[in-house]
C-alpha cells in the first residue's frame, strides 16, 4: 500500500466517530484476522471513537475473535469498512449499506467493485498482510497492539498455508516477522489453526478413499449431506479438507463439492499451477487464479465443473 492511499483511508477514519467493520460470510482466519486486527488497531489509536466488528460468529474460530451485536441505528452517519470480501453479496451482515460511506480493502480480483473508496492488492498474500502494511505506512499515527498482531499473524499464516502458497513473498515474510515481535503465544496459535476435531479426522479418511483422479491430475470429491451427517460434520468444519488433495503428487487441480442443507453444492476449487478462477466465475463464484470458490445448483452442474477442470489440464498438456 502506498502512503497516499493509506493516508486517504486514514483521513476517512479520522472523519467519523463510529466505524463498523465487516468481512465475508463463513469467515476464515484471514477474514477475521483482517477485520478484527484492524478494529484493534483503530481502538488503540482512537479510543474516543466507537469501533465495532460485526457478522456471524463462527464457533470453531472463537479462539480468534467473537463479533458484536449492534442496532441498526448505530449505522447512522457511520463509516463502514469491509475487509477480505470480493463482492457485496458475500458480506456478512447485510446492513453494511446503511453507513454513510464504505471502504473496501481486499486482495481478491476486483471483478465486482463496490464502495466509495476501494483498495485492492491482488499481489498481497492476504488481507491481513494489507492491514499490516496499512499500519506500517502510518506507524507514527497508529498503534499496533499484541492482540492485533496475533490476529494479523493468524490471517497471514492461514491464507498462505503456513507460507507454502505462491502468494507468499519476501514482503509477506517481513510482515510476519514484524508481527512475531509482539508477545503473543505463536505456538498455541499455530496449534489452534491446524488442529481438527476427531469427526473431521475421520472424514479426512473418507476424502482420500473417495477422491477421483484422472490421468492429467484433475481430482474431485463429493461430500453429500448424508455423509456429513454420518460423520457428524457440517460445512463450516470442512475447510481443513480443502488442501488435502494437493498433497498427492499426481493431483494438479481439484474441487471439493460440499452439499448444503438447501440442496446446492458449495464448491472449493484449487490448483497447483493452472488458473481455475475463470471456472469459478462461470458458476456463481470467483477468487484467486489458484484458489477460488463457486456454487453448483445441481449434481449435473457439479459434474460440469469437474469436467471443466479436466479440460483445463488436458489442454495444458497439448501446449
UniProtKB/TrEMBL annotation:
GO molecular function, one term: nucleic acid binding
Domain DHHA1: 227-315
Top-rank taxon, per record: Bacteria
Residues in DDH domain copies: 19-156
SUPFAM superfamilies to which the protein is assigned, alphabetical: DHH phosphoesterases (SSF64182)
A Pfam family matched in the record: DHH
Protein name from the UniProt record: Phosphoesterase RecJ protein
Protein species of origin: Enterococcus cecorum DSM 20682 = ATCC 43198
Amino acid at each position: 500500500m502506498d502512503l497516499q492511499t493509506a493516508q486517504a483511508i486514514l483521513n476517512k477514519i479520522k472523519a467519523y466517530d463510529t466505524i463498523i467493520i465487516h468481512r465475508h460470510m463463513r469467515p476464515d482466519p484471514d477474514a477475521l484476522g483482517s477485520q478484527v486486527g484492524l478494529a484493534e488497531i483503530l481502538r488503540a489509536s482512537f479510543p474516543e471513537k466507537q469501533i465495532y466488528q460485526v457478522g456471524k460468529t463462527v464457533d470453531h474460530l472463537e479462539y480468534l475473535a467473537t463479533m458484536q451485536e449492534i442496532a441498526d441505528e448505530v449505522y447512522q452517519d457511520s463509516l463502514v469498512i469491509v475487509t477480505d470480501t470480493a463482492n457485496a453479496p458475500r458480506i456478512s451482515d447485510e446492513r453494511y449499506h446503511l453507513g454513510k460511506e464504505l471502504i473496501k480493502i481486499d486482495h481478491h480480483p476486483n471483478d465486482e467493485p463496490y464502495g466509495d473508496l476501494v483498495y485492492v492488492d491482488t499481489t498481497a498474500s492476504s488481507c491481513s498482510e494489507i492491514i499490516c502494511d496499512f499500519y506500517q505506512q502510518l506507524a507514527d499515527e497508529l498503534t499496533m497492539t499484541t492482540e492485533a498482531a496475533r490476529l494479523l499473524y493468524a490471517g497471514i499464516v492461514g491464507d498462505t498455508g503456513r507460507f507454502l502458497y505462491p502468494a507468499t513473498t519476501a514482503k509477506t515474510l517481513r510482515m510476519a516477522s514484524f508481527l512475531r515481535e509482539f508477545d503473543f503465544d505463536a505456538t498455541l496459535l499455530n496449534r489452534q489453526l491446524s488442529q481438527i476435531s476427531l469427526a473431521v479426522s475421520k472424514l479426512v479418511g473418507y476424502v482420500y478413499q473417495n477422491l477421483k483422479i484422472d490421468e492429467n491430475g484433475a481430482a474431485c470429491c463429493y461430500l453429500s449431506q448424508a455423509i456429513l451427517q454420518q460423520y457428524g460434520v457440517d460445512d463450516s468444519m470442512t475447510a481443513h479438507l480443502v488442501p488435502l488433495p494437493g498433497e498427492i503428487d499426481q493431483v494438479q487441480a481439484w474441487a471439493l463439492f460440499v452439499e448444503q442443507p438447501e440442496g446446492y453444492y458449495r464448491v472449493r476449487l484449487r490448483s497447483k499451477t493452472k488458473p481455475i478462477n475463470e471456472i469459478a466465475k462461470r458458476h456463481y463464484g470467483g477468487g484467486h487464479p489458484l484458489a477460488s470458490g463457486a456454487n453448483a445448483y445441481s449434481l449435473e452442474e457439479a459434474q460440469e465443473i469437474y469436467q471443466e477442470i479436466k479440460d483445463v489440464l488436458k489442454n495444458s498438456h497439448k501446449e
